[in-house]
Design a protein that fits this description.
251 residues; alpha/beta; Undecaprenyl pyrophosphate synthetase; six-stranded parallel β-sheet; 8 helices; 14% strand; globular; binds 3-methylbut-3-enyl trihydrogen diphosphate; binds magnesium ion
Length: 251
């Protein structure tokens, strides 16, 4: 059954973040090497970009490679980087056609130059698009992002561009890689793991979490719609009481 029709268009999460996990296990179940799982994960990425666009989500952030993932076997890292580059290049036309803006977040200095160059080309091609912002977290670690923000804020203080007293949540937010994005409303993790793995720690302060046992290569549009439906059934109270929320809804 296509779940899309059940989605309330007035309660769409603005920003959905996804921890795409389980490629290795998916391959293992089939007696194949881990990279086979990564290759099959690309299809699911395409599906989810489509599904996000269909439902009117404005920002989709996908965790593709963490700072910790550099510690994986060299051959796997190399294949992952190559796969990322080729699939994003292949997707460029679709992104342009669907008015999707691509951006990347993470520690760009550690990325191979060829990958960065290829990605920057697609970023440039799609920079004026505005239906959906697709953010790929690549060589991304939330703690690294926060350290980077501290450094940049400190520099401004030393240069007298900012006073310590002026530091507030907005200032911190504006120094994160995600400064153009709203807070995460919905965080999805596949593969049955129930942890954050250093992803968007600041940005998920009030996110709703959706965990599913489905392994990433098997994740479909309908699974994404299902996550949105569950999100729509949650009551987001932001510290208030249920009664306060109901009153507001009645107005
Ligand atoms: C997610 O799948 C992809 C990346 C982290 C790059 P995994 O490779 O982590 O798959 P599992 O968790 O080993 O099954
Ligand atoms: C998190 O997955 C990173 C990505 C999905 C890119 P991992 O598979 O690397 O996370 P851990 O190691 O199980 O926490
Ligand atoms: Mg994993």
């Amino acid at each position: 059954m296509d779940l899309r029709a059940q989605i309330d268009p007035n309660k769409i999460p603005k920003h959905v973040a996804v921890i795409m996990d389980g490629n290795g296990r998916w391959a293992k179940q089939r007696g194949k090497p881990r990279v086979f799982g990564h290759k099959n994960g690309v299809k699911a990425v395409r599906e989810i970009i489509d599904a996000a666009g269909n439902t009117g989500v404005k920002a989709l952030t996908l965790y593709a490679f963490s700072t910790e993932n550099w510690n994986r076997p060299k051959a796997e890292v190399k294949t992952l980087m190559a796969l990322l580059l080729t699939s994003l290049k292949n997707e460029a036309k679709e992104l342009v056609k669907n008015n999707i803006k691509l951006q990347i977040i993470g520690n760009q200095e550690s990325l191979p130059k060829s990958v960065l160059k290829g990605l920057n080309k697609v970023i440039e091609q799609t920079k004026n698009n505005n239906a959906l912002t697709l953010t790929i977290a690549l060589s991304y670690g939330s703690r690294e992002e926060i350290v980077n923000a501290f450094k940049n804020i400190s520099k401004k203080i030393v240069n007298n561009e900012l006073l310590t007293e002026e530091i507030d949540e907005n200032i911190i937010n504006n120094h994160l890689y995600t400064f153009t994005l709203p807070d995460v409303d919905l965080m999805i993790r596949t593969s049955g793991e129930k942890r954050i793995s250093n992803f968007l720690l600041w940005q998920i302060a009030y996110a709703e979490f959706y965990f599913t046992d489905i392994l990433w290569p098997d994740f479909t549009k309908n699974d994404f719609y299902n996550a949105i439906l569950e999100y729509q059934n949650r009551e987001r109270r932001f510290g208030k009481t249920s009664e306060q929320i109901e009153t507001r809804n009645e107005i």
